[in-house]
Amino acid sequence: DKGNHRHFMAKEIHEQPEVVGRTIAHYVDLATGTVRLPLDLPFDFKALKRLVISACGTAYYAGLVAQYWFERLARLPVEIDVASEFRYREMPLEPGELALFISQSGETADTLASLRYARAEGQHIVSVVNVPTSTIARESAVVAPTLAGPEIGVASTKAFTCQLAVLLSLAVAAGRARGTLSAEDEQRLVKALVSVPSLMSEALKHEHDIELLSRDLAKATDVLYLGRGTSYPLALEGALKLKEISYIHAEGYAAGELKHGPIALIDETMPVIVLAPHDAIFEKTVSNMQEVAARGGRIILVGDERAAREASVETWTTLTMPAMDPIVAPIVYAVPVQLLAYHTAVFMGKDVDQPRNLAKSVTVE
Ligand code: F6R
Description:
Bound molecules: fructose -6-phosphate
Helix content: 40-55%
GO molecular function, one term: glutamine-fructose-6-phosphate transaminase (isomerizing) activity
Shape: globular
Subcellular location: Cytoplasm
Catalytic activity: D-fructose 6-phosphate + L-glutamine = D-glucosamine 6-phosphate + L-glutamate
Subunit structure: Homodimer.
Strand content: 15-25%
Radius of gyration: 20 Å
Order of helices and strands: HHEEEHEHEHEHEHHHHEHEEHEHEH
Keywords: Aminotransferase, Cytoplasm, Glutamine amidotransferase, Repeat, Transferase
């Protein structure tokens, strides 16, 4: 049932404050402002030397964001790869370490094969899955559920943001166990996490502006997405979302990589979507925006008010996000990224819920 929405994808985008809120409530103790994992972990985060993560597509991008979180908050080194590579890499894994798999459907063939490889190598297997009865859930020692509810639209939206909410909770729990986060740090992070649903509702209020912007985006043949830090995987996700439902060619890049090649593409016809909350590396992203502006690229800045004020370049449009702790920005900034792809594809008359050549569950490699 699509409710009042034209497409499942629209319904699922709009459901996010609710389902992400439900997911967060499952992993944090609201009364004490601490993370409380409802999981029986057969290992101690403190004893781990390394975490490996594998997944496909959008779920892989959630893993890339989590890599920053686990390394920064828990000082736990992370190795991550797409499952189609991971399964054949023959990566040496020391027994007793942790392997994390992320999947909406829980049926993705490559992710399942990677899980089996890691299990055979003696890893503890934890999976973040949305379908609790799935094969990946059944084959995992520990299942960390996303409470997104059924996701019908082929393009993943609410499952992605719920995955991020679970992964941030796990990273905070790991940081606490490893002694890299103080009690105050944890309180601050949990507070930021708990504020996410209302921040997402704020972000959804930009839908009309995004819809207008999408009419211009629909004319582009190529679109570039840039970001640094956790905004980098989000840039990859933005490009994937746009290409899979609108069929416009899009690329996501780490903003600092611009001058190593993609800058050659920039001219007056090229929309460049810059995902830049005002975080610790914002100044660096500003330099990259200046490089784009100097070549006539059309910058669409997705940032908070402070970022918009300090960007010091002429942007084509700015989508102003609410101010927030930068740690949760990738969860909230997913909303404008999804809406931009959705409205562009709808404006172009594409079938957003059933894009060509794609299946919701990829059970063959
Ligand atoms: C993109 C998309 C795909 C899936 C990928 C993994 O919008 O939906 O990239 O994320 O096929 O699927 P799951 O999460 O079911 O393993």
